[in-house]
Amino acid sequence: MLFHSAAFLFAFLPAVLAGTFALDRLFGRRAAIAWLVAASFVFYAWAVPAWALLLGGSVAFNFAVGRRLEGAAPHGGARGVLAFGVAANLALLGWFKYAGFFLDNVAWIAGRASPALDVALPIGISFFTFQNVAYLVDAQRGRARTYGLLEYALFIAFFPQLIAGPIVHHEELIPQLRRADALRPDAARLATGAAIFVVGLFKKVVVADRLALFADPGFAAAAASTGGGADAPLGALAAWGATLAFSLQIYFDFSGYTDMAIGLGRMFGVALPDNFLSPYKATSIVDFWRRWHVTLSRFLRDYVYIPLGGNRHGRPRRYANLMATMLLGGLWHGASWTFVAWGGLHGALLVANHGFRRLRRARGWTGTSAPGRALATLATTLAVVVAWVFFRADSFGTAAAMLASMAGAHGAGGDAPTFAGAYQALWLAAGFAAVWTLPTSRELIGDASRPVVHLQLGARRIGAVPSALAFGVLLFAIVGSSLDAGTQQFIYFQF
Hints:
- The chain has helices at 6-27, 29-44, 51-69, 77-110, 125-140, 149-157, 159-162, 170-177, 187-224, 236-267, 285-289, 294-305, 315-333, 337-363, 370-392, 396-406, 421-437, 441-445, 468-479; strands at residues 453-457, 460-465.
- With 495 residues, the protein is mostly helical.
- Helix 3 packs across helix 6 (149-157), helix 9 packs antiparallel against helix 10 and helix 13 runs antiparallel to helix 14 (337-363).
């Protein structure tokens, strides 16, 4: 079920909110949590009912393993239990997401035809697998509290973050469920949550899906030009236009989903962690990864990079750990060598960034002027944009064709124009102006501690809307006509 579908907005969400608040008032917190768990399973199984069994089995298995690990000394037999639990989770993820990729590569090495393996990828499996693994590791380390089954099930299956994050840590969500004011109606939280949600809805339906109309034809043309037929290659203008459009599309698509998830959580009295902090304002690749998919970066740091040794064994080992982490991060995004290349490219950029920082410290280069920061932001954005080519392309051939066109190999105009002229240029200019200058949704709207939405730019308040709910209704009216009319699935649903 999509957040921007009529079924979700006008049936599922109102029913779940009303049921949660009524059950908490009439029968207590446990009944409200049970209702939310059931609703989350319905949400997950909406497209494929059998996926509810997969999610339920994952919750039950990891809860049982976690209870076995909780309170155990972080050594001895507990390590074997942890290894078994983590291996089981990775095996499940591997079967659904990577089995076909593995068999294709084995067949290629052996020079044989790849066997047909028709395995549908359950949406969100990468996200809830990481949450389960983090819980098991913390339980083995003695850092996890004793949770009830319903609490744990809601931690994994809570529908606002189930499909595409944020990747929530158990200590962030479960203690909130035990607060006296959680899962109870609160006008300020409902209003603020609705406003954040509708800002995300606007980003997705009005902005991201429109930008897809510019990005998709360009990448399709690049793919077609690699087939050896009569399809003409792209010119530089069309190639850059498609790549820049996708760079903005994925920004607003993922930012929109994050806003919608956080807004939904706020309506229920649950504060989900920030996951998107204006990443195109970053002044370096290190800064970018502190802003883009924040909870994934945190997971990779805490459960991959640091266990590999982090920066504790000298620079060469640190850089190797960094590269390994980013390669795994790229593979997590998809079972394709293009995703591995995307992760490796970002790993190389991070290594270079750390090396440059060390050089700056050694030379005593301190401080940066405003023009210098602007130039650093532009250079960082350009590097990220070029790397997105591997992320979006369906093959290395498509990526190579797109990069060659961007480099001017086929002239400025080319023989396969897909650039929509001034109309597309206006969208691109407005999009980058927005991501470089406007505040985040949280900065724009604030939090539930105040029932008034204050519009502000940086530190300067530029206006106010009487209530967050009124602000939400206003934006909802803008996007309402677009609902279920050619909208696309969220990009991160495929991961």
